[in-house]
Amino acid sequence: MKIQFWSIGKPHEKYIKEGVEDFTNRISRYYKVEWIIIPPIKNAATLSETDLKKQEGETIIEWLKDDDYLILLDERGKNISSEELSTIIQQRANESAKKVVFLIGGAFGVSDKIAKRANFTWSLSKLVFPHMLVRLILAEQVYRACTILRNEKYHHQ
After folding, report:
1. How far is residue 153's CA from residue 35's CA, in Å, rounded to a whole number?
2. pLDDT confidence of residue 28
3. What stretches of 21-143 adopt beta strand conformation (E)?
4. pTM for this prediction
5. Which domains does the chain have, with CATH numbers?
6. Burial of 17 (0-12, 13-18, 19+ CB in 10 A)
């Protein structure tokens, strides 16, 4: 199984890059993993929120394959524990999923089409975080889930 992290926006900021790379490398001990940074839509500032989400959504739909398991990160999603995340990942592996995509949407969220396409919508918190920070939290939590699955020490050091 492959894990991909998709994020709309700019490349990782320097202050976050080192941490994201560290946790991504750690995850690679368990699964093939990569980051896909989806470039911002050109002329985004001239578009309405709805049009921007629609255009971003069209790009995402083009890149998704029918059998990709899409986990959307959204503040309106379900709050889950690290253990529950590990269960979700294990279930996908048990089902021989080829790819699990974790998607961090754009500044205004995602289009309804993407929200409906998501297999699971996950909220890290009711708080809103900067996208760069979400990238780091996401990578750390997926790594934590991997260590839980292997009954390794990291989760409760």
Report:
1. 26
2. 98
3. 32-38, 69-79, 99-104, 120-123
4. 0.94
5. 2-156 (3.40.1280.10)
6. middle
